[in-house]
Amino acid sequence: MKTLRDKLSIAVYVIALLTLLSSCKKDSDKRDTTPGNVNSITTTITSATELYDNAVEGKMAGNYAVGSKADFKKSIDLATAVKNAGTYNQREVDNAVASLERAITAFQSRIIQDVSADNLIAQWRFTGDASDASGNGHNGTFMTGIIGPGTAPVDGKTMPKLITDRFNEQNSALEFDNGAYVEVPYTADLNPKAFTISLWIRRRVTFNDNYMFSLNTYNGFKFQLQGNNFLFLTIHADNGYKDVDSNPGVIPENVWTFATVSYTNGAMKFYVNDKLVKTAQVTGTPVTLTTPVNLVIGQSLPKGILNFTDQSSPFYYWGPAYFKGDLDDIRFYNKALSDAEVLSIYTMEKPD
Known about the structure:
Oligomer: single chain
Distance between the termini: 94 Å
């Protein structure tokens, strides 16, 4: 009898415990209805709204990129909806504040900046010629270049051709074909330890060695397209050769596209239009050329130093490596620009 009574007591205890645990679980599943402190979200919304109201979209320095205000307004409206809901707990308030603060940071990165004028080595606008618009005197000369296989090199007898640019302005961009290139006399500032190259490109074909910008090719640095139409940068650094492509960022055919690469010891970045498409961790400092070599646009090396007989020469001609397509508005800086600075150039230079 006692045994039965003990068993019944245990059963009642177990049922009571299960009921209590079930009740606790249900309580834990319920939304916390304790009102949150609205002060933080109100302050953040006020700051964001003031920033939004004072922002002007456009293409000048100090403006915000066109379309960025609409995206920012959506974030402000979402935070305002939480505030006006009437019932919100502290977690919901904190999440809304954090989300809006991220939106503020993203919006501020869309402001168009003055882009490091003190760091601009050269700027070639190709408006009638290849003069340097930076004022630093790195003026280029139109040249004919070598084409054909290494066993039968010939002069392509074609100069870069002035064409209509992406704004439909005549004689304001350059067409490159048959080895045509621009040659810029070497000076030490064309051989920086960190740099950014930005340009507008309209490729005509797929070509393994579509060279756009080169200082002594792989023995200095070279910026090109390869057969997969990824951007490709090679640097000869003090700790070896560095080769990186922009995969997955591809340059389309027959479309004016903004392409940028930057390098500083530790990072190489590629941009296509307004998007950062790749960041690679790369270390090393670009070497200083022991023998001055002129910078070339649209070729791998200057025609005048090519060697056609000695394969041990660093200037031996192995075969065609020249650009096939159109280039415009090339900028060359002696530092790695920030993401915001690259966006500023794109915003200022893109067609409406």
